[in-house]
Amino acid sequence: MQEYPETERQMKMSDPTQITGNAKVPSDVYGSSIDNIYVNGTDSIEVDAGGTATNISAAGGNGFVYGGTASNWTANSGGYIAVDSGATLSGLTVDGGYVDVNNGATVDTATVSRAC
Question: Can you give the pTM of this predicted structure?
Answer without folding.
Answer: 0.85
